[in-house]
Design a protein that fits this description.
This is Translational regulator CsrA. The chain is an alpha+beta fold. It contains two helices and three strands; from the N terminus they run E-E-E-H-H. 30% of the residues lie in helices and 27% in strands. A three-stranded antiparallel β-sheet has the order 1-2-3, with no helix packed on it.
């Protein structure tokens, strides 16, 4: 992991297209601004992990799920 120190209003550039800027510092919290192309998905980690979990669970559904649902009538 790369660890960088930044002060208020300083930025980090990633891959020429993403800029992270420290907008505010309040105690142990920071406000982070992200400037990135629209096609770049940006999530808080806890949301990203939940999406990954739900996608994994959905991919484990039976392959014949539609047939099973039709036969329930």
């Amino acid at each position: 992991m790369l660890v960088l120190t930044r002060k208020l209003n300083e930025s980090i550039i990633i891959n020429d297209t993403i800029e992270l800027t420290i907008l505010a510092i309040d105690g142990d919290q920071i406000k982070l601004g992200i400037n990135a192309p629209r096609e770049v998905d940006i999530y808080r980690k806890e949301i990203y992990l939940q999406i990954q979990k739900e996608n994994s669970e959905a991919s484990n559904l039976p392959t014949n799920l539609l047939e099973l649902l039709k036969n329930k009538k």
